[in-house]
């Protein structure tokens, strides 16, 4: 019997507002290998985490829950002191009797912000965890974001929510982020006119020069978002892929064309309580027959295999670029997470836990 | 050659805020019959108006136009001093050479708030005007609202925008209005659980006792719309047919179920500038995957014949009730219109111009 130490990240208490380092702690627990089974029917799957995802939506789960979304499983509250689940890639240490998993195999799914993920039997049914058939020509880290839930979010949101037609115009906010950078690339490959916004000149340059956006702008340089969008979309916006909410959503609605569509992926400006909610002009929504639709990647699991094959092809032949911002070591998770709300990341924020 | 006097309603200037009688004037013009043609190619259709529709959306067209909807034909600005177009039923005085119209025939379409509608040749292409095959068992006034654009709005909005499933719950605001009263009845006939809100106890009673709503409440009696909706929808709202916008929309979003749908038909609370815009919780929209869709009846002209046959059947066999609030004489149009914004009407506001 062997004992391993598992370091993991927890919140000290609920977080309201923007997160800071002092909100987090690194805890240590001891895991016995092979895992002790309480009865013959109970077992554990243990995964050694390799790469884990760091996403803005986690902040909503860290808040003291009072709003209606607390009832929704995708927004299940994170409990202070406990391990925090997240999408990631790891290697099986113990298969826990699951016939679909074998020791040392790669898996992708719901892991934790920690060195190991321990999954008890009673969690099995609800915990997404599958064998990963990784393409060896691609970095393993791609499977956390571009070929993980960020990618599926971009794919489902663009193809299924926006329902694009060739030649239409697309506006993407937080366009250099994990999801936005992929939406813009899918949209260009599909034949749309794509303009993105981001918060630094470096990001704007990247969108135009590396990711092939038709145009891009720094929203911090604009005093009037409505005029900015008029300038970048003289013929109006057909689709808006919204990652930020707030004032940008209002301005996008004001510049939308008839039968425009808004895919509401996130509202990062509202997560920290720092920004204000979007006050929408409902007359515009009526007269322009705008559709505003919230969605989650999980709704589009039925197009997962299409998404993986299409995206893998594009990545292999260089038609798409996967942007990653990789931190190293479980201790860096809080820093990486905090950075999301300060606009530090370019592309997918990932922490590499082990080699 | 005969001369007839045509009295019609015009606005004196653009209206901002709630309308009042002093915003309107009754003007008189003289029409020569047969209409004088300028060239052999120009002709006029002349219709004697019988019943004309009075609708809240007209107020948006009376404003000094600055917002983006001014570019949209359905919201074309109304010009001070000029005749104001509206949906209505009339009788052909001169067919103007149109082979599909004959003298003395009934027509339905875009008429005016006046005694006569004079349509010049150059308007032909854009002006909706069709022969009306009215069911003689039904009052002609039904064709202005329930079997006109209000009905099509309710029908298209409920069946095509809400996409109902049997057993789902529907919330309807302004439920005793021209559109809301029909939505609630379609929804009940379809097999939904329907709750409506209105602004007087008399209207609430009517919804429950005459129109068969499962429940109804007076929103003016509620201090907290969010709690009110929780009480009336303990299992949440699947569809919200929104006629009012503002705070009611916010409360409805807060009480929606996963995959809920909002059909945005109007935002009367925002028309007069008296109410405030809806400040939506976009996190709710994302996590509950809510779809908010603006629409206009004109988008559903393809289901016009289904709508007419279904609704005519329901009206004839007493399964649906057409509520009308009928004023008499062209001079009463301003009063009827102003009443819409004071909650005076029950059902469709109509002015009978002639017998």
TrEMBL record, chains A, B:
Domain Enoyl reductase (ER): 27-351
Gene3D superfamilies xrefs: Medium-chain alcohol dehydrogenases, catalytic domain (3.90.180.10), NAD(P)-binding Rossmann-like Domain (3.40.50.720)
InterPro entries in the cross-refs: ADH-like_C (IPR013149), ADH_N_2 (IPR041694), ER (IPR020843), GroES-like_sf (IPR011032), MDR_fam (IPR045010), NAD(P)-bd_dom_sf (IPR036291)
Pfam families the UniProt entry points to: ADH_N_2 (PF16884), ADH_zinc_N (PF00107)
Keywords from the named record: Oxidoreductase
SMART domains, sorted: PKS_ER
Superkingdom of this protein's organism: Eukaryota
Gene Ontology molecular function terms on file: oxidoreductase activity, acting on the CH-CH group of donors, NAD or NADP as acceptor
Protein name: Enoyl reductase (ER) domain-containing protein
Organism: Erythranthe guttata
